[in-house]
Amino acid sequence: MTAPDAADLRRRTRDLLAARPPATTDRTDFLKARFDAGLAWVHYPAGLGGLDAPRSLQTVVEAELAAAGAPDNDPRRIGIGLGMAAPTVLGFGTDEQKQRFLRPLWVGEEVWCQLFSEPGAGSDLAALSTRAVRDGEDWVVDGQKVWTSSAHLARWAILIARTDPDVPKHRGISYFICDMTDPGVEVRPLRQITGEAEFNEVFLTGVRIPDSHRLGPVGEGWKVAQTTLMNERVSIGGARVPREGGMIGPVAATWRERPELRTHDLHQRLLTLWVEAEVARLTGARLRQQLVAGQPGPEGSGMKLAFARLNQEISGLEVELLGGEGLLYSDWTMRRPELVDFTGRDAGYRYLRSKGNSIEGGTSEVLLNIVAERVLGLPAEPRNDKDVAWKDLSR
């Protein structure tokens, strides 16, 4: 079967719009019809929201839908599902898992979260201690996860747990899909420096996960997790933004609208950061083009590094530019938001929230190692725990 070209995708999109006019069709019904028509993510296989088309042609579909005022699937709210869970399920899931999870994930009927980091396994994620023990057709999971975005909203979670403590830490991990509504799953809010509880800690006590919800072979969860992590870094650092999109936008707007705040030093710093933000934006576009030909590689780690540094430097400049106004913080209300909105809030929020950018999605220190070893080809750091059984490691 020949893959659809741009003209074919344009025709299919217009057929969808004719059959399901956005103005008179329920939003969820429209999104389901779009998925079933293969126009959700065109590069996915037919029957799973795609048409086996080149990834680059997704923009053809998006342009037609935007022109017609069609609804989207609120991608910021379901970003973990779209950017991390979906490519992992596609790459390692069974046919039954793909059919069960991908459609409600893309439509936004089911929110996903990520149960990876632990209090004692953040940067060194492979040192995780959450255990999964086989009991017939189930796995019984006990442990604690932390820094879990959207856990208070999620129906499903991607989870890695230790299934064999007698082998080195990277080899004794398995990957599961966990039902967040199951008995034994407890979600507690973690209040942050912003005042909000966007993150959570999750306690797992005797949680039973059927073996049919395992992704990949037993003991090869680290390999599966690499797919998730690489996609996570691309989705964070390589997101599609327009010129002056993201954090640089509000600063540039303030500079233009408030000439009384300008100084020569701030001007030079703004110019430097504006250029760096534009370089990062164009590099992100290049990275997305590379994705057309295959899976994300370690380059995504470099993009995520740049994202964190730029956000922190730009938000710091914004606070300085605003002077006393920059020290104000409009709302310290404790709430559990559905998404992170950097540009829709004030400068104080951006400054505080950006501090987490160098931790979430892989710490900057770990990502520097990845870039050094896997992109630049530099010698790996000496490690004395690679051949030691996890149970024998000092903790």
Structure, described:
It is built from eleven helices and eight strands. The chain has a four-stranded mixed sheet. By secondary structure, it is α+β, with helices and mostly antiparallel strands. Strand 6 (185-190) and strand 7 form a beta hairpin. The radius of gyration is 22 Å and the shape is globular. The mean pLDDT is 91.
Radius of gyration: 22 Å
Pattern of helices and strands: HHHHHEEEEEEEEHHHHHH
Structural class: alpha+beta
Average residue-wise pLDDT: 91
Taking strands numbered 1, 2, ... along the chain, how are they ordered across the largest sheet?
Answer: 1-4-5-8
Q: Outline, from the CA principal axes? A: globular
Based on the model shown, name its key terms.
395 residues, alpha+beta, four-stranded mixed sheet, four-stranded antiparallel sheet, 40% helix, globular
In short:
The protein is α+β, with helices and mostly antiparallel strands and 395 residues long. It has 11 helices and 8 strands.
Blueprint of the fold:
Blueprint: H1 6-19, H2 27-36, H3 58-67, H4 79-92, H5 95-107, E1 112-115, E2 131-135, E3 138-145, E4 156-162, E5 173-179, E6 185-190, E7 199-210, E8 214-215, H6 221-237, H7 248-257, H8 264-291, H9 299-322, H10 347-353, H11 364-375
Parallel strand pairs: 1-4
Antiparallel strand pairs: 2-3, 3-7, 4-5, 5-8, 6-7
Helix pairs in contact: 1-3, 2-5, 4-5, 4-6, 6-9, 7-9, 8-9, 9-10, 9-11
